[in-house]
Every structure is written in structure tokens, then in C-alpha cells.
Amino acid sequence: xSELLYSLFFYMALGAATGVVAGLLGVGxxxxxxxxxxxxxxxxxxxxxxxMHLAIGTSLATIIVTSISSVRAHHRHxxxxxxxxxxxxxxxxxxxxLGSELAGALRxxxxxxxxGIFTLTVAAQIxxxxxxxxxxxxxGTAGMLTAGGLIGLVSAIVGIGGGSMTVPFLTxxxxxxxxxxxxxxxxxxxxxxxxxxxYVFTGWGQPDLPPWSCGYVYGPALLGIGLISMLSxxxxxxxxxxxxxxxxxxxxxxxxxxIGIKMLIG
Length: 266
What we know:
Oligomer: single chain
Number of strands: 2
Structural class: mainly alpha
Largest sheet: 2 strands, antiparallel
Strand content: under 5%
């Protein structure tokens, strides 16, 4: 029990850092949560065969809590494009469920390499400020279903809320950045819900899971990260108005680059 309480302290610290960074830089916490949880799980001596699956599944479950808080704030400002959200939502759910099923069939090392490549891609996007220029309007039903499916699929495999893909997609379709970010926050909720459910069922009955696990979702980490990140996110949003976020985004991009390389080399 003392070891569990000791680990809970690290989960709470991770939740605080994730919430501040998400509020400060407007990025999801999955890219921080997944590698940090993988490191903590390794220190705890969990079997290597389930570490990445547990880290990704737990990350998606924590996003449920933070996305609800974020959506409420954006909705109060009238920035969420709800018709767009409802067009994307079916594809997001389907893609996420498929992604969680696919991830369950992949080896731990394969998931680690995929996560590393994705993290390096996001690091380049943030560091160099890549932003797609508006080229077209939103596609029709089939296009929105496809876009949502792809975003959900990738999000489920790497354990994120999908903002690094949803925001560029919506800005490419002529939506303003503020509405794209707000709508992306709303889209994170069905991704997180479907992803958490998918990883619970995919991991159900796996022999190497540690105590307090529900499938590939680890209860103590979900509790510590979810509660504290929800409380610390407003602090990050407040700091965003007084700190040089452009410089911080470049530093964060460098940090993600290091994480990506580390995940690739093992």
C-alpha cells in the first residue's frame, strides 16, 4: 500500500504538469502523459508487454475529465461549432474503437515506435509553426466521417485527444483558429470515451496486468492525473496571458523532440 501511495504522488505531479501545459500552450496532455506513465510503470516493475498499452489506455481515460472542463469553458464563450462536432463525432467514435482494437493486437515495441514518430511530427509542427492555409470549405457527410475516422484511429493508437490533427483540419477548412481549438476540445471527449472503453475491453482478462487495472486502464494513475490536471489547467490558462508563449512553445517542441527520440531508441 505504501508503494501505491508513493506512486500516487507521482501521478498527481504528472497531472499538475499536464494541466498547466495544456492550459498554457493549448495542447493536449497525452503527449506528456503516455511517455511519463511508461517510465513510471517501468520503475514500478510492470511487465514490459503491457506498459505502452496501459500508458495509452490510461491517458485516454484521463482526457475524459480534462476535456469536460475544457468544453464547458469554450461553450460559455460560444466558440464550439456544435454542428461540425456532430458531423465529426460518429467517425471519431468508430475510428477510436477500431484504433484501440488495432493497438491491442500490436506489440509493445511497435506502439512505442509509432508514438515516437508521431511525437516527432507534432514537435516539428509546433516548433516550426506549420499551419495549413485555408483551402476549402468543410466536406460533405462522407468526407467528415472519413476525417473523423482517421483522427480517431490515430488518436487511439497514440493516446491523445486528437487536437494536433483536428485543429489543422478545421483551419484548412476555413474555420478560425479560436473556433477550431474550441471544437477540437469538444471532439476530444468522444475520442477519450470511446478510447477508454476500447482499451478496457481490449485489455480485459490479460494475464500480465497489475492490480487496480480495469483492462488497459490503470486506476491509481487515472485518479491522480485526472483530478489534479482538471484543477491545474486554469492556472496554465492564466499564465498564458503573462508569459511569452511563443518561446515556450518552441521549448516545448524541443522537449517533445527529445521524448520522440527517446521513445524510438527504447
